[in-house]
Amino acid sequence: MNNKLIILLLSVLTIIPSVRSAESTAPPTKVKRIGLEEYNKMRANTNYVLVDVRSAAEFEKGHIPRAINIDVNSLRFAEKVGALDKSKTYLVNCAVGMRSARACQKMETMGFTNLYDLAPGFDGWKQAGRPVAK
């Protein structure tokens, strides 16, 4: 009985350091979720690219000025995003923050390193009385 307990304890003790090591070597995320104030300050920089990942129909009803539309649910999303300059900074939004989070994940796997996700999305932007283009 004692031998089995000792073997079990040794097994657990050798597994724990390897799990911790794997956790510490995970690459840090390149996506930052930001609020309205920070987003608004950042969008003033014309070198930053604003990407609205909602559908074309949603985009046409209203969007953040200067935003380009690349629908995250489109079959051509990866193709369109792949044509963008990976060295630039991207401010990404959708309606409420779900699709933009997914889009940022996809963009990160494609090699984009400067990604900012508007946490409250376009709906939060609009409700706050921020400018809307059509």
If you had to describe this structure to a student in words, what would you say it looks like?
The protein is an alpha/beta fold and 134 residues long. It has helices at residues 2-24, 36-43, 56-61, 77-82, 98-109, 121-127; strands spanning 31-34, 49-52, 68-69, 90-93, 115-118. Helix 5 (98-109) links the parallel strand 4 (90-93) and strand 5. Mean pLDDT is 87; it is low at 16-26.
Descriptive keywords:
Oxidized Rhodanese, domain 1, 5-stranded parallel β-sheet, 134 residues, single chain, alpha/beta
The helix fraction, in percent, is: 40-55%
Report Rg. Answer: 21 Å
Number of E-type strands: 5
Count of discrete domains: 1
| CATH architecture descriptor name | 3-Layer(aba) Sandwich
Mean pLDDT over the residues: 87
Write the CATH homologous superfamily.
Answer: Rhodanese-like domain
Poorly predicted ranges: 16-26
Number of helices in the DSSP assignment: 6
Biggest sheet, in brief?
5 strands, parallel
Q: State which percent range the strand residues make up.
A: 5-15%
| CATH hierarchy class name | Alpha Beta
Question: What is the overall shape?
Answer: globular
State the distance separating the first and last CA atoms: 75 Å
How do the helices and strands follow one another from N- to C-terminus? HEHEHEHEHEH
